[in-house]
Amino acid sequence: MIIKPRKGWQLIDFKELIEYRDLLYLLVSRNIKVRYSQTVLGGLWAIIQPFFMMIVFSIFFGNLAKVPSDGIPYPVFSYSALIAWTYFANSVTNSSNSIVSSGGLISKVYFPRLIVPLSSVLSGLLDFVIAFVILIGMMLYYHIYPTFMILLLPIMVVLMMLAATGVGMILAPLNAKYRDIAYTVPFLVQFWMFASPVVYPVSMVPEKYRLIYAINPMTGVIEGFRSVLLGSVAFPMQMLLVSAAVSIALFVTGALYFRQTERYFADVI
Amino acid sequence: MSNPIIKVNNLSKRYRIGARERANKSFREAIVEGITAPLRNLGRLRNLTRFDNGDEENTIWALKDVSFEANKGEVLGIIGKNGSGKSTLLKILSRITEPSSGSAEIRGRVSSLLEVGTGFNPELTGRENIFLNGTILGMRKKEIERKFDEIVAFSEIEKFIDTPVKRYSSGMYVRLAFAVAAHLEPEILLVDEVLAVGDADFQKKCLGKMESLAGTGRTVLFVSHNMAAIKNFCPRTILLNQGKIAEDGTTDRVVKHYLGSGVNTSAERVWNDVKKAPGDDDVRLQAIRAKNGKGEVTAEFNIQEPVYLEMEFCVLKEGWSLTESFHLSDESGLLIFVSGNSLDPAWHNRKRPVGFYRSLCCIPGNFLNEGSFIIKVAIATDSVVAHVIERDAINFHVFDPGSGGVRGDHTREWPNVVIRPLLEWKTEQVPANVCNSCGNGEHEGLM
């Protein structure tokens, strides 16, 4: 092995990542164990956040503002989007803080730095699964039964993870150097939510702007979620393609940027 | 000789240091500064990772053109003052940070131990932390499972292994952390000052573990300020000074050089101006010297000849009974003895009149080992008032001409020996006793 200043752009070193898979696994399990340690409600917190958001949204947007919901009861309509959104928002927040909060590790030991934001994104999946169980309960309650289209759900999940990881890989190095990012992310995430079809349906957006709207990768993901789970809208093929392309672009850009910047993490944290 | 396992070529690392903030002169200026601060901050933060504009004054070279090689199985000490680049070197070799220029070639699996307990999470139990910390240090999960019992036994905290480590005492925490580190089996181990933790017993255990690691063909780079440990482990040592290699050679020589560089190397110190001499208003030191039997001031002593230590001082106020003492340390700072004149019948419990005094103390020949010794001088009244304390006052060197004296037929150095006294011995064959009853027989005293 030769150590010298690195030149040029590099993509992810998958071979090395695989070598360190045990570490990734243990960091994910650490994140999960630590997140709700010494809490009374424990894993219930994974449900409380999207569930109460759903109640608030149902009262204000569903009942009072009468926001349309594609013929689906507003609670299920918003909750199906909220679980995806909550996952995305938490993943982006946690992964963009991850490099700074793992500063102690990074300045003392070598390992592929990518593992740090990756473990944040992966450990959020458990919360997503827990929250998803509630969605199934709600669907049964409202007599909404999914079709075989639900087999396409993993695609949405993968896209959602790609987008979250991509954004995390861009924000985490920036945050390592400019701590302003830590203050920016919370309201970035809030803006982003209203730019995604969480509280309102895509059908409210004029047809001709929908593909531009789909540049927000969460648009395609959330609309896809609703389509395959609730069957409320037709499968949004075109929008999903745009969103997928953007997700992949985000991921690749993030990976390149992360690899480029990771060499100075230990020096700037 | 085979290929070196570590080959470092002109390795350099540049860091940016903070430029001085300008002070505001007026309220108006402060407001303008405040408004333009974001722009300045942006420039400053951007520059953290840029070195192209050649402003040398705001950067330092933590390492500059460092080159060396280490062979398989070699245990290499790295010493130097704080800020000399030791840790930076280890950080580069363990790939934590990238060099600014130069390269290093490493053949083998590297583990670095820059602190104990890296990645320990207070919320997790001892068991979980063993796995987390182990994988962070580069072990595989299977490997940890295999060594798990051994690690727990080494840490001596079996009972608490399923307790969150935030409830551990700091000693338990360190023991657990070190137990994990001690079970690393890399081909190359990079260790920074980590042995300075834990109680004496545990430190000894760790040093023993390190020693056995070094004995199994592993290459170890060991950074430490603990010269005794360096001398124990490392046949070869590199001395870094301001990012450059100042010396690379046998540990004994390099350590001697390093320790010698910081202290006054003369065998005599004289203070002509009483006001500036060490001491208080009552007693002031005037001179300290090391002399040989002929009364000549010298810093070099044959191991067989006595060393005379002399101090001169003024008593400016009457009314104190004084004890003068010499404190002799070896070059690693180990205090070998303190000798005072408190038993001198002429002055014992007697108040000193104002005047000029000279005290002489004799260290007999055939008592000290070879090496450099450092003298501290103190003049005190009982243990109540310390009138004079002068550290590193003088030093001298004891050499062995190589024949006669304690050495006998032993021709090599006697490392790790503090004194080498000539003691009386008597050995005789005792015909009445048979060997299997040895130990039951009477011991005849050495007379």
Helix content of chain B: 10-25%
Provide the domain count of chain A. 1
Order of strands across the main sheet of chain B: 5-6-7-3-8-9
Note the run of SSEs of chain B as H and E. Answer: EHEEHEEHHHEHEHEEHEEEEEEEEE
What ranges of chain B have pLDDT less than 50 throughout 5 or more consecutive residues?
none
- Do you know the CATH architecture of the domain at 268-399 in chain B? Distorted Sandwich
Quick check: average pLDDT of chain B?
A: 82
Major sheet attributes of chain B: 6 strands, mixed
Largest sheet of chain A: none
CATH class of the domain at 268-399 in chain B: Mainly Beta
Largest interface: A-B, 32 and 40 residues
Give a verbal description of the structure.
The complex is a heterodimer of chains A (269) and B (447). With 269 residues, chain A is mostly helical. Chain A has one domain. Chain A has 12 helices and 1 strand; from the N terminus they run E-H-H-H-H-H-H-H-H-H-H-H-H. In chain A, helix 3 (45-64) packs across helix 4 and helix 4 runs antiparallel to helix 8 (180-194). Chain B has helices at residues 27-47, 86-93, 126-136, 141-155, 170-182, 200-214, 227-233, 251-262; strands spanning 6-16, 59-70, 75-80, 101-106, 110-113, 188-191, 219-223, 236-241, 244-250, 268-270, 283-291, 300-302, 307-315, 323-330, 335-340, 355-363, 371-381, 385-399. In chain B, the strands form 4 sheets. Chain B has a 6-stranded mixed β-sheet, with helices on both faces. Chain B has a 5-stranded mixed β-sheet with strand order 12-18-17-14-15, with no helix packed on it. In chain B, helix 3 packs across helix 5. The longest helix of chain B is centred in the first third of the chain and has 21 residues, at 27-47. The radius of gyration of chain B is 29 Å and the shape is globular. The two termini of chain B are 54 Å apart. Classes of the chains: A mainly alpha (269), B alpha/beta (447). Chain A binds chain B through residues 1-6, 20, 22-23, 25-27, 30, 33-34, 37-38, 104-111, 177-178, 263-264, 266-268, and chain B through 15, 45, 48-49, 91-107, 110, 112, 114-115, 118-119, 121, 123-124, 128, 131-132, 135-138, 140-141, 164. Strand 1 (2-3) of chain A pairs antiparallel with strand 4 of chain B.
